[in-house]
Input
Amino acid sequence: MADLGIGFDPNSDDMKSGGVLPKGDYRLVCVESKIDQTKSGRKYMQFVWQVFEGNGHNRKVFDDHYVFDGEAEKLRAAKGRLGNLLQAAGIKEVFRDSAQMHGKKILAKIDVNESEGYAPKNRISSYKPLVANGPQAFTGEAIVTTASGQIPPW
Output
């Protein structure tokens, strides 16, 4: 027998693998992206989001966008969904590279999709700008306030 010198609690969140995040709103930061293809050859863009605060801290959520091909109506809906994401992330310039999303922070509503024959998985159902201290959009920089809670004019 060998003493590990440390103790691992099998009931801690750190020791639980897999599973899905419960439905709810999460603060996410984009940590990766790629363009990939399904087995059937359909091209898609994938963002990997990481929970950076609160419940599920450091857990990852995969967010696929099928904006390259498909039926006109589905393609229009997919592009609209991507547009909502870009707006929530504060991207105003032409989006040409998925790396433009890296480091962007958003507030996302996460749902759980369950399909017969498949394990449940998380899906981002909506995107919102991450706000801090009122209506100002969170830019990833600290928002300075005075003791009275007002934002200084500088």
The helical segments are 72-88. The longest strand covers residues 24-37. The radius of gyration is 19 Å.
